[in-house]
Design goal:
alpha+beta; 3-stranded antiparallel beta sheet; T-fold; binds magnesium ion; binds adenosine-5'-diphosphate; 346 residues
């Protein structure tokens, strides 16, 4: 009887606390960074949620403009100055991206290379309209293979910068979204939010829980609009996927996508999607891109080099490769189930 009573009081308490902090998920979507950004919050009042949504959208739009590779802005200015070879002052808002990406370039053994903006231009992926082809001529690609631009070509001294290689053009398309998601999560936390998700076009970072259970998130089926797999995330985890379906064109019956292998100058072969779970979004984003370039044979080496342990690679025959710690938590949502190889990292 006594325990029943105590339980009753506890239940009432929970309900009251619930009323105060809204025990539901409040969601909002907005368009930014060329994709739909969905913010989910748990345990905040509707009014507070509205102000968080507004702040996040403002910040996201600001970052999109600042780090855009071809729209007018600080990065576009840097790209105009780089080929001249002289030293110039960089906008401080871009500096952390350059510094971080120099490290990630090294860690990825050069496969994550935001200095290949020129190559991405040649392929037509640095423009608002979807490219139609044709692929660039070998002549046009040759300089990028003979004197390959790299993040090591960039010399930084405070906010002063120059490139030793005139082919260096910066494109943070494989990193900026992750870096921005980290900043939005930080902003959320500063506003007192403890439980939430920032999901930018399927790439996300989740903190806390959805009430008394973990968040559940989906990984897109690289063949279409459906879901390949789902998994539970909680605490503080980022899930980022690089896919060949995001941007591509078909020419002469052949498909050319937007993740370029700096070693060949061509779209990376072998993978159709790579998912990485990591403790921050920026590195998860870079690692997904690098591991995609590495492909279904070299991926364990690059994952290990980048310090990520939870990885899933889907190859162009829909064969799935996973690390043991990824395999433990992935729940496939497709029929028939894909063939899976579990591989430990070197
Ligand atoms: P998604 O758009 O599927 O999330 P990514 O995060 O891999 O994919 O980003 C792809 C973008 O990164 C390309 O559109 C291009 O701007 C840029 N990029 C392409 N190849 C590379 C590379 N090897 N290293 C770094 N960035 C790249
Ligand atoms: Mg990426």
């Amino acid at each position: 009887m006594k325990t029943l009573f105590v339980r009753g009081v506890l239940m009432l308490g929970l309900v009251l606390v619930g009323c105060d902090t809204a025990p539901v998920v409040i969601k909002q979507q907005f368009y930014s960074f060329g994709t739909i950004v969905e913010v989910s919050l748990w345990g905040v009042k509707p009014q507070q949620a509205q102000s968080v949504f507004l702040q996040l959208q403002e910040d996201m739009d600001y970052m999109h403009e600042t780090w855009h590779a071809w729209h007018e802005g600080p990065l576009a200015r840097i790209n105009q100055l780089l080929p001249l070879g002289a030293t110039f002052s960089v906008a401080p808002s871009v500096l952390p991206l350059i510094e971080n990406c120099k490290l990630l370039y090294r860690k990825s053994h050069g496969l994550f290379n935001p200095a290949i903006g020129g190559l991405i231009n040649l392929w037509g992926f640095a423009q608002d309209e979807p490219p139609l082809g044709p692929p660039p001529a070998d002549e046009a690609l040759r300089p990028y293979l003979e004197t390959p631009p790299s993040m090591d070509d960039i010399e930084l001294d405070g906010i002063r910068m120059r490139s030793k290689n005139p082919l260096v053009q910066l494109n943070f398309g494989g990193y900026a979204k992750g870096y921005a998601v980290d900043i939005l999560i930080q902003r959320m936390q500063e506003s007192g939010v403890r439980n939430g998700i920032v999901n930018a076009g399927g790439d996300l970072r989740a903190i806390g829980m959805k009430g008394d259970r973990p968040w559940r998130i989906a990984i897109r089926d690289p063949r279409g609009e459906g879901i390949l797999a789902s998994l539970a995330v909680q605490g503080d985890e980022s899930v980022f996927t690089s896919g060949n379906y995001e941007r591509f064109f078909t020419f002469d019956g052949q498909r050319f996508h937007h993740i370029i292998d700096p070693r060949t100058g061509y779209p990376a072969q072998g993978s159709v999607s790579v998912t990485v779970i990591h403790n921050n979004a920026a590195e998860a984003d870079a690692a997904a891109t690098a591991i995609f370039v590495a492909g279904p044979r070299q991926w364990p080496e690059i994952a290990a080099a980048m310090g990520v342990t939870q990885v899933m690679v889907v190859d162009d025959a829909m064969h799935v490769y996973m690390t043991p710690s990824m395999a433990e938590r992935v729940h496939f949502e497709i029929e028939p189930l894909p063939a899976v190889t579990i591989q430990t990292l070197p």
